[in-house]
Amino acid sequence: MIWGQNSQTITSGEIHDGLNGIEPINGGDSYGLYRDRNWLSADLNNDGLSDIYNYWQCQVGTEIKTRIQTFYSKPQQDGTVKFTYKGSYTTDPNAGPTNHITAYGSLVSVKNLNGDNKPEIVMPYFINNSMNFIVVNEFNPSGFRFTQNLIANNDEMPAFAIDDFNNDGIDDLLFIEKKAIGSSYCGKINYSTNEWNDNGWTLFNVSVLDNKNRNIFL
After folding, report:
1. What is the per-residue burial (b if ≥16 Cβ within 10 Å, else e) of 45-66?
2. Residue 57 and residue 30: Cα distance in Å, rounded?
């Protein structure tokens, strides 16, 4: 069980392992803390032990962004576990409150995008008519970002899903825009090709009309 504690100077928390009592989680920062943190666990470096990550909305000037921090676990000889701060990442510096309010909360998830069986933290968000993904993993503890421009140039975050759509054991990325062009919505899918530029994405269209020419979204 994890208890998160907010501080203006550090990021801290506690974990109860059921055997050795409460162990502290210290380090990191409270950069621009704007809302309470979400604390979650996952085996981020695939060593069989649960690690910790947290994320929160932070305020930078007049802008609201999302910040992620990761802590890796390490067992001690006395049977306890210590958590080491690995890195943090803040969403695009040009993003404002409207763009990132939907990127806070349940949209941050742990997936396996590159097929190495080591999970990545994935955070989708919308900015400047583009769909963006921040990915944090063992080799990039401070995260990296890739982006896809939208076809309809709409001003709303697309619907998206992260799952294994082609049943190859690796999670894929998919999003569909919420503004139609003519009688169809534009979407893109990436089947975990490890090419996050345009070459790795496939464009598709979803019709808004059924077989009786009625708009299925109305």
Report:
1. beeeebbbbbbbbbebeebbbb
2. 10
Tokens of 110: 């742990």
Is residue 84 within 8 A of residue 8, CB to CB? The reply is no
Please say whether the beta carbons of 34 and 59 come within 8 A: yes
> Which residue carries 């909305």 as its tokens?
57
Boundaries of every domain in the chain: 2-207
N- to C-terminal Cα distance for the chain?
44
The side-by-side arrangement of strands in the sheet containing 140-149 is: 109-111, 120-127, 130-137, 140-149
Q: Report CA torsion sign: 48, 44, 201, 154.
A: positive
Q: 32: which strand partners? A: none
- How far apart are alpha carbons 75 and 214 in whole angstroms? 60
Q: Collect the ranges in the chain with pLDDT lower than 70.
A: 1-36, 91-107, 141-142, 193-196, 216-218
Nearest alpha-carbon partner for 120 in 107, 102, 108? 108
Distance of CA 190 to the CA centre of its chain: 16
Q: What is the pTM of this model?
A: 0.70
Strand order in the sheet with 202-207: 159-163, 172-181, 184-190, 202-207
Q: How far apart are CA 33 and CA 54, in angstroms?
A: 12
CA 175: distance to chain centroid? Answer: 14
